[in-house]
Design goal:
single chain; 260 residues; alpha+beta; 3 domains; five-stranded antiparallel beta sheet; 9 helices; 54% helix; rod-shaped
Length: 260
């Protein structure tokens, strides 16, 4: 299979080169249509053989064929047509035959050759485009012929998909707009929750305790004060200070001094 692929690519390349050499002089002529010499050269191009390159291509050899065609600039456009062929081959079925007549057209980009082909399920127009010198293939096109019912079905499906997509987007936007009020409520709740938390933190701050003054302060370690009080008591009682022992000193209530 690999050898056949290589032969097919080489054959196609040689065919394009031969036609390019014979068309160099005629490509510069300007006319309203295709002149006779150019038309004769285009009619000699085996358009159907390019189609056989796709119809005989198996899925397992697709990538190998793509790489082989891409390496040669003259037929690189055929590699780009592989994806288009894979998209339409399911609607065509098996290849049956190709018409001998070729429709030729000229455009600002070059020339195109179209051949009508017959497949198991439907017919198809296969088009190959060339540059003005016929030295390079610039593109391929596969145009299956669908009946009115199939066209209406495809049109209806495309319309349904387009309208369905629009309605889904509109519904999503409506739901998004409707959620804006809940977003504001959610933000307000978050703000209130933050304020409550700040107040709670302020309330739960560590309190400052003031140590109350003791009503009765015992001055056990104040020796000078104890000596003075002992001397005063001894003088008032007429006894010796050595016989007196001060065990504790307590502050008297202010009301007692006023009564004295």
């Amino acid at each position: 299979m690999k050898l056949n692929l290589k032969r097919a690519v080489v054959g196609l390349t040689m065919a394009v080169c031969l036609f390019s050499l014979s068309a160099c002089g005629a490509a510069s002529k300007q006319s309203e249509g295709i002149d006779a010499d150019m038309k004769a050269q285009l009619e000699q191009i085996p358009v159907a053989s390019y189609l056989e390159l796709y119809t005989g291509l198996e899925d397992k050899d697709t990538e190998q064929m793509r790489k082989s065609l891409t390496k040669k600039d003259e037929v690189a456009a055929l590699a780009e047509g592989i994806d288009s062929w894979n998209n339409v081959k399911g609607d065509l079925g098996s290849f049956v035959s190709a018409s001998d007549s070729v429709k030729l057209e000229e455009s600002k980009d070059g020339y195109s050759a179209t051949v009508n082909t017959v497949f198991e399920k439907r017919n198809m127009d296969f088009t190959v485009t060339f540059d003005h010198k016929l030295s390079k293939i610039t593109g391929v096109a596969f145009v299956p012929e669908y009946n009115i019912a199939e066209k209406m079905e495809k049109a209806g499906f495309n319309t349904l998909m387009g309208m369905g997509t629009v309605f889904v987007v509109l519904i999503f936007i409506s739901m998004l707009i409707g959620c804006f009020r809940y977003i504001s409520i959610f933000e307000e709740k978050l703000l209130n929750k933050k304020n409550v938390a700040e107040i709670k933190v302020a309330v739960e701050a560590e309190p400052v305790f003031i140590q109350p003054l003791a009503e009765e302060d015992e001055l056990k370690d104040d020796l000078e004060l104890a000596a003075v009080i002992t001397a005063a008591i001894a003088a008032s009682e007429g006894v010796s200070p050595s016989g007196l022992v001060v065990r504790s000193i307590k502050r008297a209530a202010t009301g007692n001094w006023k009564k004295a």
